[in-house]
Specification:
The chain folds into three domains: 17-32 and 231-283 and 296-349, Efflux pump adaptor protein, beta barrel domain (Elongation Factor Tu (Ef-tu), domain 3, Beta Barrel), CATH 2.40.30.170; 38-66 and 200-229, OB fold (Dihydrolipoamide Acetyltransferase, E2P) (Beta Barrel), CATH 2.40.50.100; 68-196, Helix Hairpins, CATH 1.10.287.620. It contains four helices and 14 strands. The relative contact order is 0.19. The strands form three sheets. A six-stranded antiparallel β-barrel has the order 1-10-13-12-11-14. With 350 residues, it is of the alpha+beta class. A hairpin with a 6-residue loop joins β11 (254-259) and β12 (266-274). Residues 235-277 form the CusB-like beta-barrel domain. InterPro entries: Beta-barrel_RND_2, MdtA-like_BSH, MFP. One of its GO terms (biological process) is transmembrane transport. Residues 39-225 form the Multidrug resistance protein MdtA-like barrel-sandwich hybrid domain. Belongs to the membrane fusion protein (MFP) (TC 8.A.1) family.
Length: 350
């Protein structure tokens, strides 16, 4: 055990140990969620009540597209929706009428069926009495004619009842169609109202207008850039550290930030997260070293740093400012982690 300690001490004397309780880089910049606002509808701008570098609040009007034609489209869609609603009411009324017709046809059919049953009973009785002379041939012929007439009427009433049932089924289909038409008309009306709402281009966040890209009287199309909104003072810092410097960087570690444009001021923050790949991996054409001569290039990994919101002077930080960041890697590093690192470093040096 003593020999191991002595060996470690000797190595520490002969070799400078590269462990540092902080890492610093000036490859760091202030960042923010820049929000480019674009037009969702097309038309002429009748008002652009903002100026460059103006502070705005969420919901403030930034630009107004001429909305006369959009209002007319809303009125047209509203009329079509009203017509569809009236058609549905008419279909429902027709349904009620057809139900009454079916019930009336069924009642008439039952009454005629009862009358036919009575005629059939008379027909049997008359034919039984005919041999005895209790009834005349004329009476028998008359009851025979009544049975035939009532049978024909019964068949006709049954057909009318079935036709009334079919019309009732058709009225159900008409109701479903009317409901679908009403739903389509209401959806169209909603879309027209949405388009009308988009004629008012408002700020989605509190912040500062970066630059106006339009002026009153200009014709804008869907996707035309109106302005950029910077949600100040909600900013953070992105620092690009070399791959050899991120070994002990962990989320939550304390960070000291010096701003080039604000000499003499120091800001406090903490490590929020590390990007899951080097900056080169997100390039449009990542470097490919699989062929040709190889030249090793030290990679840099972006580290996101959030600022302590209690700092009053944070409002003076603007996106794009160059800063120097120092991450205090000793914060959050336990003695066990340090010993593990030291042991691994010594093994690699021997």
């Amino acid at each position: 055990m003593a020999s191991s300690v002595l060996f470690a001490s000797a190595v520490a004397v002969w070799y400078p140990i590269p462990y540092r309780d902080s890492v610093t880089t000036d490859d760091a910049y202030v960042r923010a969620d820049l929000t480019p606002l674009v037009s969702h509808v097309e038309g002429y701008l009748v008002d652009v009540p903002i100026r460059d570098n103006q502070r705005v609040r969420s919901g403030d009007l930034l630009a107004l597209v001429q909305d006369a034609d959009y209002r007319e489209k809303v009125a047209e869609a509203q009329a079509k929706s009203d017509l569809a609603a009236a058609a549905l009411v008419e279909s429902l009324s027709q349904k009620q009428y057809q139900q009454i017709q079916v019930e009336a046809a069924a009642a008439s059919l039952r009454a005629l069926h009862a009358e036919l049953d009575r005629a059939v009973a008379d027909h049997s009785r008359y034919h039984a009495l005919l041999p005895s002379g209790s009834v005349s041939r004329q009476q028998v012929d008359g009851i025979d004619a009544d049975v035939k007439r009532l049978s024909a009427n019964l068949a006709q009433r049954r057909a009318e009842w079935m036709a009334a049932q079919q019309r009732e089924k058709m009225s159900n289909a008409s109701i479903n169609k009317a409901r679908a038409n009403l739903q389509a008309a209401q959806s169209s009306l909603n879309l027209r109202n949405i388009d009308l709402g988009w004629t008012r281009i408002t700020s989605p966040v509190d912040g500062v207008i970066g630059e106006r890209h339009v002026r009153p009287g200009m014709y804008v199309r869907t996707g035309t850039l109106i302005a950029d909104v910077v949600p100040l003072p909600h900013v953070w810092v992105v620092a690009n550290f070399r791959e050899s410097e991120i070994t002990h960087i962990r989320p939550g570690q304390r960070v000291t930030i010096l701003v080039d444009s604000l000499p003499g001021r120091a800001f406090e923050g903490k490590v929020d997260s590390l990007q899951p790949a080097s900056g080169a991996q997100f390039a449009l054409l990542p470097a490919d070293n699989a062929t040709g001569n190889f030249t090793k290039v030290v990679q840099r990994f972006p580290v996101k740093i959030t600022l302590d919101p209690s700092q009053d002077s944070q409002s003076s930080l603007l996106p794009g400012m160059s800063v120097t960041t120092t991450i205090h890697t000793s914060t959050g590093l336990s003695s066990g982690n340090f010993i593990d690192w030291l042991t691994g470093w010594l093994r690699g040096r021997v």
